Amino acid sequence: MSAGDRTADLNADLGESYGAWTLGDDATLMDIITSANIACGFHAGDPLTLRRACAMAAVRGVTIGAQVSYHDLAGFGRREMEVPPDELAAEVLYQIAALDGIARAEGVSVRYVKPHGALYHRVARDPEQAGALVAAITSYSPSLALLTQRDGQAARIAAEAGITVVSEAYADRAYRPDGTLVPRGQPGAVRTDPTEVADRAVRMITRNVVTAADGSDIAITARSLCIHGDTPGAIALARAVRLALADSGVRLASFA
After folding, report:
1. Does the model's pTM come out above 0.90?
2. Is 97 exposed, middle or buried (0-12, 13-18, 19+ CB in 10 A)?
């Protein structure tokens, strides 16, 4: 397949402001991305913020995904938690249903689910919590896709359950040689140079490769690329990625 035959989705985490605390520029990012991972209130996002995000997505034709997480407002969902499977499944179900209800009030609906933060990484390796995530999706609507890393327990269990799995990669995060992300807080974990991030994005989509932190090239397959809304300079990064992909003959379109 040539670069001109490729299609990529560009997603970002949105709806993460809370009360008087504003995080990111949802309105501007909505004009750049094709899919929006909207918070569901458990790690960030108050009801008015979520409704505004859904309304903006509806007007711009941006696909909405439920960005589900551990119940961890204080830690922004980035602290791993031990939650019994039935409780976790109920919490994820609650979040999907809440956001979908708000989205439907704006004339659209949730089309996919993406775990956030610590939950994202936990379900990649933990079959019990991955099973709880998939159970919640299946019980709400088996038509919802799961946006996650290609190789992992969540992807495997979801595929076995008949859920559409969409592979994702991070243009603004550094990778380790084993294909996992360099943990936040370590030097170079977050990439903030627009030119570098755009080049990485193009290589991910057109060559299925990314340069790891040690300089080695590792294989990576992604239908969707993520730019975190709270990454410094997120707007410039997203614009650079969108332009670079277009210049490389990659068509931008949501997967759902």
Report:
1. yes
2. middle
Q: What would the pLDDT profile of 61-78 be if each residue is shown by its tens digit?
A: 999 999 999 999 999 999
Residue 179, φ and ψ in degrees, nearest 5: 90, -5
Helices (H), 144-215: 153-160, 194-206
Query: Is CATH 3.30.450.40 the right assignment for the domain spanning 3-248?
Result: no
As a whole number of Å, the CA-based R_g of the chain is 17
Beta carbons of 215 and 188 less than 8 angstroms apart: no
Q: Which residues pair with 166 in a beta bridge?
A: 147
* pLDDT band per the 50, 70, 90 thresholds, residue 98: very high
Amino acid of residue 245: L
pLDDT of 5 reads 66
Q: Are 40 and 98 in contact (CB under 8 A)?
A: yes
H helix or E strand, kind and range, residue 44: none
What is the distance between the alpha carbons of residues 214 and 182, in angstroms, rounded to a whole number?
11
Q: Is the pLDDT of residue 53 over 70?
A: yes
Residues 13, 253, 120: CA angle, nearest 5 degrees: 35
